[in-house]
Amino acid sequence: MRFASWKLVRELVELSHVVLELTDSRDPLNTRSTKFEKIVSSLGKPLVVVINKADLVPKEVCEEWKEYFKKVLGYEAVYVSARSRLGTRILRETIKRVAGKPGEKRSRVVVSVFGLPKVGKSTLVNVLKGRHSTPTSPYPGSPGYTFRAKLFKIGEGIYLIDTPGIVPPEGGDVESVIRSKPIDELENPEKVAVDLILKVLKYNRRAFLEAYGVESEDPHEIIAGVARLRGWIRGGGLDLFEASKKVIRDYLDGEIVYYYSPLDMGLAQ
Q1: pTM value?
Q2: What phi and psi values does residue 250 have, to the nearest 5 degrees?
Q3: 244: which of 73, 76, 91, 193 fits an S-S bond (Cβ 3.0–4.6 Å)?
Q4: Where in the chain is the domain with CATH 3.40.50.300?
């Protein structure tokens, strides 16, 4: 998994008129990057927090997170479902609205997209670009930038920098672990899966019943149930190693659902 260096992140932000940061609607707090947000703020660029996978949680919860990011943190925010192509029109309108200073009109607004792995960045970029989009022009980088990124027109006067924007995960939450490296490279996937299951069950005790038909709320029994469901056997017993990786993979793919609101976390609005 290749992350953008912080130096590259800074250079890409400098090239942009508007910066998008994608988060996962199920856990917006632990899928954002405060370090990245500080870089954007230090360069004086407008930041739009895009709460993705909004189809997985109730609309009112997405609204609460939108208000939290706007009123408490001072960022513009929208919620979308990139894979369902929902909310992208509002996103384009928001980009145009925040791009210029009052009374200022830009003939071209350049947008960059950043986010942790598996928050849906590639899907959103592809949706914004459209099936038949072609690069309009090369975009020269700043000093030290080793390639010329391409611009894609994604709306009237709006252009997207097509370049990697994967931000390194921060913090100690299990989200930072499962997004820090490919699943097959995790040293102890069963422990990671247990931590993830416990986190999910805290907010949705039926999550694994809904996902796999497993009624237990014991993480180890859930993993065993997944292995049994798939018929995975290793050394005469259930293959808990592969079952653990499947739980993690299904979570990242949006197959396991839970959510919490700012009020659940005691965050002022």
Answers
A1: 0.90
A2: -65, -35
A3: 193
A4: 6-162
